[in-house]
Amino acid sequence: MKFSEYIQYDATGLAELVRQGQVKPEELLDLAIARAAELNPSLNCLIHAFHDAARARIRAGLPQGPFAGVPFILKDLLDDLEGQPTSFGTRAVRWYPPRNAEITDRYLAAGLVPFAKSNLPELGLMISTEPAAFGPAHNPWKAGYSTGGSSGGSAAAVAARIVPMASANDGGGSIRFPAACCGVFGLKPSRGRNPTGPFEMEGWDGAIAGHPLTLSVRDSAAMLDALCGSEAGAGFPVPKPTESFLAQMQRPLKPLTIGYSLKPMIPAQVSPDAKKALEHTLRLLEAAGHHLVEADPVIDADKLWRDFLTVTSGHVANKIEQIRREFGAQAARELEAGTLSMGMLGRSFRSVDVAAAKEGWHGVRMAMSNYFERFDLLLTPTLISEPAPHGVIPPSAFEAFQMRAGRFLPLGRLLMASGLLFTLSERVLSRMAFTLMGNVTGLPGMSVPLYWTEAGLPLGSQFTAPMGHEGRLLQLAHQLEQQAPWFDKRPPL
Questions:
Q1: For 98-151, where are the alpha helices, taking DSSP H only?
Q2: Most C-beta atoms within 10 A of its C-beta, which of 7, 215, 255, 430?
Q3: 0.90 exceeded by the pTM?
Q4: Burial classification of residue 59, based on how many CB atoms lie within 10 Å of its CB (0-12 exposed, 13-18 middle, 19 or more buried)
């Protein structure tokens, strides 16, 4: 197989060629490795390779899963692979897991052949992939621009056609955000749908969900069939559906009543391009016969980000302490200023603050439950603006100095009460204005690549569904994929 043929197929198509004996897994792996060698020096989307282990996996015999023989990339966070180091995007840590993550076991059981790990921001905390440890990942559509985060390396690798899909996870938008930045499809499943253990059983109090970024909708649906189902010790056990997601996706879609909103759920300004992207999607939906109603969810935008940070910063503080215990004080000191600053916040808040914040999470969930009594789906932009140039989102050198200087002071509650915290964090928080709600509520959502700016940068449209209704999302995505195909849109590499 030539590379010009390889990129004509999604993962489902490549797996079918393997089943028919038209191509061998070794050939597909060699093509993916060659493509990575060609592009990664400029994209910097991959940070660790294990080609020999991948070849050995093929020689040992692959499971006859739905994606047997398809090359794959693992995100270097949560999707741990025994025998390969996990860095969490840091300079501080190289952890060798004693076993695979449960979701990695299910990737392997599906027949996938992982051969590399993708770049990401430190601990997955930033919505742009520009870690000090590995350097920035470049957007395949425009060098020097963000891939989004935290699954930015995976999104870039898929957009660049190194692989047709790559693993990702999402704690504040980290599947949907990079999908929108890189022009690929990103589904965040319902809380508890896919496994997250055994090392992070309830990541960020259940805010984190894992699922791969893909080129096609059918790959995402078939992968959800392979991944979903409860795991030992699950805090939010969700059984497999009686009908496969792939079958649900293929069923004809009846006209939906879709609410849409341009009102940010965190204080932010929505750019003209983001508005154009939403208008473009509305025209597609109208042409498909769906009923559209402009309707904003009733959510306190100021309270949403406060409650999210109050809960998640405690988890970051705990992770820093874990690094200090297991890897030493020097390793903890090597963490980035933004990570240490978020740890300071987590140590500042009291347990009563966290309990009150979790009540706020429940309030958002009730608000969205009320919303879905009227509507089948919610449509918003995924991003408030086009992907940012590198250097815009991470803290400046002076800001980093200030963060390091204040990391030992219990300033979190003071910064929160004064409103200064939002000012210091606005570049990150404001860009999560449409994605964060899905993590607080656990609702399933997706970013669909339907619009490119005049400058050639992609902007996704986000759809959110009621809990457990990934099938409805996949049905609509499949319809949009047929109506406005994106598979052959390729970055000018």
A1: 102-109
A2: 215
A3: yes
A4: exposed
